Amino acid sequence: MREDDKDHDFFSHKFPTTSQVVEELKELWSMALPLTAMNMLVFVRAVVSVLFLGRLGSLELAGGALSIGFTNITGYSVLVGLASGLEPVCSQAFGSKNWELLSLSLQRMVLILLMAIVPISLLWLNLEKIMLFMGQDGKITEMAAIYCFYSLPDLLTNTLLQPLRVFLRSQKVTKPMMYCSLIAVLFHVPLNYFLVMVMQFGVPGVAMASVLTNMNMVVLMAGYVGLFRKKEMMLKWPGCGGGGGGMMVVSEGLGELMKLAVPSCLMICLEWWWYEIVTVLAGYLENPTLAVAATGILIQTTSMMYTVPMALAACVSARVGNELGAGKPYKAKLAAMVALACAFVMGFINVTWTVILRYGWAGLFTNDEPVKALVASVMPIMGLCELGNCPQTTGCGILRGTARPVIGANINLGSFYFVGTPVAVGLAFWFKIGFSGLWFGLLSAQVACALSILYVVIIKTDWEAEALKAEKLTMVEMVMNKDKKKNEECKGLLENENGNKIDMC
């Protein structure tokens, strides 16, 4: 590709050339592959924790699984969702080379997450009371409460970890994140073995190992930012060059960032929570033990498959934001279209392998023949769900990159709760289809969600207007700071030699 093709946007009446499409593919996957590897490492870390819980006993495994589900719903999903509100601001600020906004947004998000973990901590501390009120088994609940209590420090760790991830990937920095995750996860097994087997801490040991692994990730990523991203990281905290006004500068933009963070959080959580609802509904079927066991295997499988579209969504969000911030609307559109095409290809791959391997896949998780048969019967439906989930997840990333998370939140709310839930409940319980009915409900939700998001992204998006919005978003910080300095100069008074004050205005 010629240099001017890379540096300039192309005209709206021209289709992108083959070389431009290929270049965009290279750009996208050079970011997405390291992120996919990082997501897989995080998935492996979770599997290792479950394996060590299983070695402790069935009660410990059940309690740990209950706690992991509770903490995912009430804590991690919320923090990941809120942190995703950084994506449009950081990516567009990086595209426009507004390092000040890039840095301040990271610090503002850390403040927002610090405020968010206060109510989350209270929920985690009262897990036992909440679960007993909901009729859960007392012994399992007691074990879950122990795991949850020792996981509390992880909330503080995630207030730094999640924003740092967005901060780095918005600058197309993904390989260092992968290496940091790899180093941290390599120590995860030895940490578990030492704390659980050698020190015999049991369930608290598994929880502490997860906390320490995340802490290692934060230290490594923060070290990378401090050493190699100095240009983009201009601290404004009090005592760090900003004086007492540093905190004022950071806190002033919290409201605007919250307008992006809250709907971004809802967009992610509404889908995340729905999978937990499926697990609960499975417990009300005729054979709840069989249904819940099969649901666990299927959700683990979807989590594994989700690592690729999740990485692609994060990368296209950064790519779209970078190009809009740089004033290149049609390069942003090209990034969006290429990502959606890749998402459909991944969806077809998932359909294919879930159909071909449906009989042998469950055998990797269990030897129970009824469970394996139930999983095999639903695997093709789950594959079709992924055909909708891949473009839908990617589309959500595009909406975040264009600073329109409110639209994504509304679509997810309507699709999963006003389409998916009635269909799942109606088919599973009213029409007596049973377990398969729940997954047909998910399929209907994914189809509705994918069609709605594709309509918004492909048909309703005015890319030139989005570029103008990005310009306003990235310029607002500069204007605010210039006005503030001017006001301070106007208020400032100099004293002349006679002690008289002279108004500088």
From TrEMBL:
Stated membrane topology is:
Multi-pass membrane protein
* TM regions (residue ranges): 31-53, 65-86, 106-125, 177-199, 205-227, 334-361, 411-431, 437-459
Give the UniProt keywords, A-Z. Membrane, Transmembrane, Transmembrane helix
Molecular function in Gene Ontology: antiporter activity; xenobiotic transmembrane transporter activity
Q: Name one GO cellular component term.
A: membrane
This protein's major location comes to membrane
What range does the record give for the signal peptide? none
Family, as annotated: Belongs to the multi antimicrobial extrusion (MATE) (TC 2.A.66.1) family.
- Which PANTHER family does its entry note? MULTIDRUG RESISTANCE PROTEIN (PTHR11206)
This protein is called Protein DETOXIFICATION
- From which source organism is this entry? Medicago truncatula (Barrel medic)
